[in-house]
From TrEMBL:
Enzyme Commission number(s) from the entry: 2.4.2.10
Family membership: Belongs to the purine/pyrimidine phosphoribosyltransferase family. PyrE subfamily.
Gene Ontology molecular function terms on file: magnesium ion binding; orotate phosphoribosyltransferase activity
Occurrences of domain Phosphoribosyltransferase (ranges): 54-159
Annotated GO biological process: 'de novo' UMP biosynthetic process; pyrimidine nucleobase biosynthetic process
Gene label: pyrE
Enzyme class name: transferase
Keyword vocabulary terms for this entry: Glycosyltransferase, Magnesium, Pyrimidine biosynthesis, Transferase
Protein's name in the database: Orotate phosphoribosyltransferase
Classification via PANTHER family: OROTATE PHOSPHORIBOSYLTRANSFERASE, URIDINE 5'-MONOPHOSPHATE SYNTHASE
Length: 213
């Protein structure tokens, strides 16, 4: 399957299971603090075995194709945990997940599960990239723990310049199964969006950090 076909298939599945929501009148608040008329809830895909498996296969194949020899798969908490664990299982590799900050009781861990030995090769699995802030926090924690973070694979990216720059600044390669441009293309072709929703999305896209403020 070509990269393009995969991106279209994944976008189409996200639309079919209603993971993508549009609500310009009551904007969604994102992890970055940005307001947005669109929200892509990839967690919903876990409820659909065929979609869940297709995504798992896509992520695992990408790990193999782009990174080859890997020691540990890590998931970004919380939305990257389930798919990360599925990918680790498929690849028969150890798994850990990375909290946004250390736990405040118990063992006080930020990285849970597989313990990382210095220099071990880790690939991170994330569900979605907006600004990239959450993913890069996880990368920092893994690097502090001594990991050689080879890169990241995620289900979806909005394709914002800020994310590209954030990842480049940290020297991290990342790949995604699908992206905003492909999603909107599919949504238009299959009539999931109205003309007025498209206009709102175009306005939002011009300056997402300031939209709805
Ligand atoms: O690229 P960013 O700007 O950081 O945004 C994307 C992040 O936001 C969401 O997580 P959220 O913080 O909503 O929490 P969850 O994973 O626990 O659901 C999503 O799962 C990504 O991790
Ligand atoms: O940036 C976010 O917080 C975010 C955006 C989005 O579309 N979906 C999601 O789960 N998180």
């Amino acid at each position: 399957m070509t990269q393009r076909t995969l991106a279209e298939n994944v976008a189409s599945m996200l639309l079919e299971v209603k993971a993508v929501r549009l609500n310009p009148d009551q904007p969604f608040k994102w992890a970055s603090g940005w307001n947005s008329p669109i929200y892509c809830d990839n967690r919903i895909t876990l409820s659909y075995p065929k979609v869940r498996t297709a995504i798992k296969n896509g992520l695992a194949s990408a790990v193999q194709a782009y990174f080859g020899d890997v020691d540990i798969i890590a998931g970004v908490a919380t939305a990257g945990i389930a798919q990360g664990a599925l990918v680790a299982d498929w690849l028969e590799l150890p798994f850990c997940y990375v909290r946004p900050e250390p736990k405040k009781h118990g063992m006080g861990n930020q990285i849970e599960g597989a313990s990382i030995k210095p220099g071990q090769k880790v690939v991170l699995i994330e569900d979605l990239v907006s600004t990239g802030g959450s993913s890069l926090k996880a990368v920092e924690a893994l690097r502090e723990a001594g990991a050689n973070v080879l890169g990241m694979v995620a289900i979806f990216t909005y394709g914002f310049e800020i994310a590209r720059k954030n990842f480049a600044d940290k020297g991290l390669n990342f790949y995604t199964l699908s992206d905003y441009e492909t999603l909107i293309g599919e949504a238009v072709t299959k009539k999931y969006v109205t003309e007025s929703q498209l206009i709102t999305l175009q306005e939002w896209r011009q300056n997402p950090a300031e939209w709805g403020v």
